[in-house]
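cron nightly-structures :: item 1 of 1
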Amino acid sequence: MEAQPVMDLAAAMERFDGDQDLFLTLAEMFLERSPAALAAIQTALADKNLPMLAKEAHKLKGSAMEFCARPTVAAAAQLEESARQSALNEMAAIGERVHAEVQRLTAALQVIIEKGFPACHVPPQPKRCWSWNPVPERWPWSWNRRRLEASRS
C-alpha cells in the first residue's frame, strides 16, 4: 500500500487564500508547538487520562487540519475517538501512528520553511478581465477604419 501524501499543499494554500506568509507563520507555530502536544499525548496515554488524551488529540487534529494534512488529521481523530470510547487496547498503536504522522508533517513543513514553496504550488497571478494590445494596427477599430478608407479610394 502506497503512503498517502503528508498534506495537500494546493488545498492548504486555498485555505490561506494564497497567503504564503500566513502559511509560513502557522507552519512555524506548528513546529514550535507540536513537540509539546506529542509529549502531552504520551503523558495522557501513560497515565490513561482519557479526557486529557481526547482534548490533546482534538487540538492536534485542528492544527493539522490547517495544512490539509489528511493522514495526521485521521490519526488524531482516531485517537480522539478511541479516548472518548475508552478503547484502551487500541490507543498505544494509534498513539504511535499519530507520532509518526506528526513527524512526517513537521518534516514537510520544515522543508517548505527552509527551501520555499515548490514551483507547482506558487499561487497563480490574478487573471485579467480583458486583454489590451497596444499595437494600433491590431486594434479592431483600426481594421474597420482601414477597410472604410480602402472603400473610399
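cron nightly-structures :: done
Confidence is low (pLDDT under 50) at residues 125-136, 138-143.
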